[in-house]
Amino acid sequence: MTKIGMRRIVKWISCLATVYFAYSYMQRHRFTTATDDTGGTEAQYAVEKVFLESWQDYVAHAWGYDVFNAASGQGQNFGEKPLGWMIVDALDTMMLMQAHTKDVRHRLRLRREVARCEAWIRDELDYDMNTEVSVFETTIRMLGGLLSAHHLAETLGVGTPAVYAAKAEELGARLVPAFLASPVGIPYSSVNLRTGEAVKSMGIGEASLAEFTTLQLEFKQLAYVTGNATYWKLAEAVYKPFFRENDYPAAYDGIAPVGVLPDTGKFFTPAFKIGARGDSYYEYLLKQYLQTREPLYWKLYQTTMTGMAKHMIARSVPDDYLYIGERYGTLSGPFMPQMDHLVCFIGGLYAMAATEGVPLAKAEQQPWFDGDRALYWQIAEDVTYTCYRTYHETPTGLAAEISFFSVREDEAHDSWWESPSRNFFIKPTDVQNLQRPETVESIMYMWHLSGDSKYRQWNWEIFEAFRKNTAYYRPDGSLTYTSINSVVAEGQTTPRDNMESFWLAETLKYVYLTFVDDFDLSKVVFNTEAHPLPVLDPEELARRGLVTGWDL
Ligand code: DMJ
């Protein structure tokens, strides 16, 4: 080639590069503020960046492992082989970001990472292992993750649906013995993936309410994808025994204790909580209705909401923050004015119950929008505000694992941290933050359903607090993100040496979706681990023989 020819080629390449960088810069800076009413392009970019930093640090230090000890930069597995805990849980966040990003370089990187995950799932992930796993955690994270990857691969064209469907079917089949072990169909809490041996939880062997009632969205979707109605039937069979054995819901106003004996269905531990061990029982009643439109689940959900208003909801002193407490013994027994961070999903749930996923203004015009729906919306606004305040008022801008609310004007607790507004306290044992998603989840729903820009501002503020306080620089200067020991300690936060998979699967996804315009919440149902599953057509379900086989 002549010198002139060479020069021309170099000129063309540099010309193309300039156009490419100018284009991607313009795309990124189309809107100038992260919380701009018209769009969140800059915020989207910032969240993608933190996601990619977190993810690529995992890839560099612990690729394939189930647990990522982020501060020390090491990986571990739960059993003899990896279950895909980080990879499968994070995958659909990458798929969604790839579909919605406005940044060309991010899109290319995300596409490469999706392909890396898919190849690992296809070639390395092997569920034939002599390892006992939690039925609940494996269902919500792995089965849910595989089924949503299947759904997004089909609808967004990002990946090979058959790879995910095959793995989901294999995993589902290996979880089935947990259901069959119980004489009444309430699954034991763990199962060995190779031998099928099912094991009750330690001690008396009770099943946690939230655990055996948070499998239904995934098993119903699996039945739909595989055409095997057994998955559907097994998942639904869990309800009848505990309803029948305990005169539930009538005798309990719809609020159930958190412990149940799996061989009979009898209630055991008399603790009533919407947080740990109780939370997603309530969530999956509404979400099954949204997934399949079976009226039974709407009826059940409404019963539980009435009971919640009667027995569990309270307001703090001095500013009336609405929160959901705990009861012990009976439903009129001692009330604990404390709320797990886990409860903060409930704002989003109430909002979805009010509008069924369409914007509030549209829902209010529907014949079904009645006084109950209006009340659900009001509770959604109030409890989401409280959860936001548990972030906004701490020195780090991050919420603690549990907040304890004031019931008296002169309330004081030695050695507990007191919020500036005096509405809540944090005990020294509860000051940690595990990068949990529930508050940003509710705020994401409130933004899409109300269009009120304050919700974007709140999630931006929380995201900034995560970015500042959960970022950790190792001694070699490399960056990671990790849970922290205290949200109230002054100065530098200390890391807990763990990046939970729900940081990638849920927290960053929900913050991200807050800044995606026009995300239609009436088309998908997020499982409790933020994996989006499709809303199913009732007529198609009936044609396939997938219908509810029980009633109250
Ligand atoms: C997640 O695994 C799920 O959201 C679950 O339902 C509750 N806890 C964590 C996140 O906090």
From TrEMBL:
Keyword Metal-binding on entry: yes
Active-site residues, as the UniProt record annotates them: E137, D279, E401, E438
SS bond list: C344-C387
Pfam families: Glyco_hydro_47 (PF01532)
Origin superkingdom: Eukaryota
Any one Gene Ontology cellular component term annotated for this protein: membrane
Record pathway: Protein modification; protein glycosylation
GO molecular function: calcium ion binding; mannosyl-oligosaccharide 1,2-alpha-mannosidase activity
Binding-site residues, Ca(2+): T528
Reactions catalysed: N(4)-(alpha-D-Man-(1->2)-alpha-D-Man-(1->2)-alpha-D-Man-(1->3)-[alpha-D-Man-(1->3)-[alpha-D-Man-(1->2)-alpha-D-Man-(1->6)]-alpha-D-Man-(1->6)]-beta-D-Man-(1->4)-beta-D-GlcNAc-(1->4)-beta-D-GlcNAc)-L-asparaginyl-[protein] (N-glucan mannose isomer 8A1,2,3B1,3) + 3 H2O = N(4)-(alpha-D-Man-(1->3)-[alpha-D-Man-(1->3)-[alpha-D-Man-(1->6)]-alpha-D-Man-(1->6)]-beta-D-Man-(1->4)-beta-D-GlcNAc-(1->4)-beta-D-GlcNAc)-L-asparaginyl-[protein] (N-glucan mannose isomer 5A1,2) + 3 beta-D-mannose; N(4)-(alpha-D-Man-(1->2)-alpha-D-Man-(1->2)-alpha-D-Man-(1->3)-[alpha-D-Man-(1->2)-alpha-D-Man-(1->3)-[alpha-D-Man-(1->2)-alpha-D-Man-(1->6)]-alpha-D-Man-(1->6)]-beta-D-Man-(1->4)-beta-D-GlcNAc-(1->4)-beta-D-GlcNAc)-L-asparaginyl-[protein] (N-glucan mannose isomer 9A1,2,3B1,2,3) + 4 H2O = N(4)-(alpha-D-Man-(1->3)-[alpha-D-Man-(1->3)-[alpha-D-Man-(1->6)]-alpha-D-Man-(1->6)]-beta-D-Man-(1->4)-beta-D-GlcNAc-(1->4)-beta-D-GlcNAc)-L-asparaginyl-[protein] (N-glucan mannose isomer 5A1,2) + 4 beta-D-mannose
One GO term of the biological process aspect: carbohydrate metabolic process
EC annotation from Swiss-Prot or TrEMBL: 3.2.1.-
Gene3D superfamilies cross-referenced by the UniProt entry: 1.50.10.10
SUPFAM superfamilies membership: Seven-hairpin glycosidases (SSF48225)
UniProt cofactor(s): Ca(2+)
Keyword terms: Calcium, Disulfide bond, Glycosidase, Hydrolase, Metal-binding
Similarity comment: Belongs to the glycosyl hydrolase 47 family.
PANTHER family listed in its UniProt record: ENDOPLASMIC RETICULUM MANNOSYL-OLIGOSACCHARIDE 1,2-ALPHA-MANNOSIDASE, MANNOSYL-OLIGOSACCHARIDE ALPHA-1,2-MANNOSIDASE-RELATED
Protein name: alpha-1,2-Mannosidase
